[in-house]
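S1.2 Input.
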Amino acid sequence: MVYGRCLEKEYVCILSKRLIGFKRIHLKNKEKKTVEFNFTKEDFSYIGIDMKKTNPKGKIEIEIGSNKKELFL
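S1.3 Output.
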């Protein structure tokens, strides 16, 4: 699971972190695989206070984890 979080705080309240990608893979003991994700600006957009689709400004932090409970919020 891949989570994204905007590092620049804006004037509207958006989720601090949300799921932006997911791929299920199975690994054997000590097996390694490369998993790739391609993101667009639409993956990070949200509905602003003016009810229009908005893209966040600034940097985005990407986090990888097996589930949300394992990530520090």
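S1.4 Remarks. The chain has no helices and five strands.
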